[in-house]
UniProtKB/TrEMBL annotation:
Gene3D superfamilies: L,D-transpeptidase catalytic domain-like (2.40.440.10). GO terms for cellular component: extracellular region. The active site is at H109 (proton donor/acceptor), C125 (nucleophile). GO terms for molecular function: peptidoglycan L,D-transpeptidase activity; transferase activity. This is L,D-TPase catalytic domain-containing protein. Pathway: Glycan biosynthesis; Cell wall biogenesis; peptidoglycan biosynthesis. Belongs to the YkuD family. It comes from the Bacteria. SUPFAM superfamilies: L,D-transpeptidase catalytic domain-like. Residues 25-149 form the L,D-TPase catalytic domain. InterPro entries: LD-transpeptidase, LD_TPept_cat_dom, Transpep_catalytic_dom. Keywords: Cell shape, Cell wall biogenesis/degradation, Hydrolase, Peptidoglycan synthesis, Signal, Transferase. Residues 1-22 form the signal peptide.
Length: 150
């Protein structure tokens, strides 16, 4: 077990979180590089460019569990159907258990504006190209840990 794994396990044991199952994978999002890396058994398997919050504080730093997963999510603000090419959430939603939320406020999702990937443009979510978020969605599950760093 490496130091990061020991930290994550200790963090969740000390915080009293017991509802997240053990996971063989985790995700690390580096906001300074706008890069998401998927780790499998502590080995970086794939990295993807992402878009993060316009302001440094928009995308919260910390370690969160995946608590919601939705294929073709509806965009409720303007009632755009899931799967629509106009949907700003793209084709997948991976919701994060940021304190005070339920997995529907902060997440990793696709986008209908792939040209903005690599930028600081979101209201707080982590945006990915639809092909990339589909791959990620197929490799994570509720309980997967997501570490967001500056």
């Amino acid at each position: 077990m490496n130091l990061r794994s020991a930290f994550l396990i200790g963090f969740f044991l000390l915080s009293g979180v017991t509802s997240l199952p053990a996971s063989d994978s985790y995700i690390r999002i580096d906001k300074s590089e706008n890069k998401l890396t998927y780790y499998y058994f502590n080995v970086p398997l794939r990295s993807f460019p992402v878009a993060t919050g316009r302001l440094k504080e928009d995308t919260p730093i910390g370690t969160y569990g995946v608590v919601m997963m939705v294929k073709n999510p509806w965009y409720l603000k303007t009632n755009i159907a899931g799967g629509s090419p106009d949907n700003p959430l793209g084709v997948r939603w991976i919701g994060l258990d940021v304190p005070g939320t339920d997995g529907s406020k902060y997440g990793i999702h696709g986008t209908n504006r792939p040209e903005l990937i690599g930028s600081h443009v979101s209201a707080g979510c982590v945006r990915m190209k639809n092909t990339d978020v589909t791959w990620l969605y197929d490799h994570v599950h509720p309980g997967t840990l997501v570490e967001i760093v500056d």
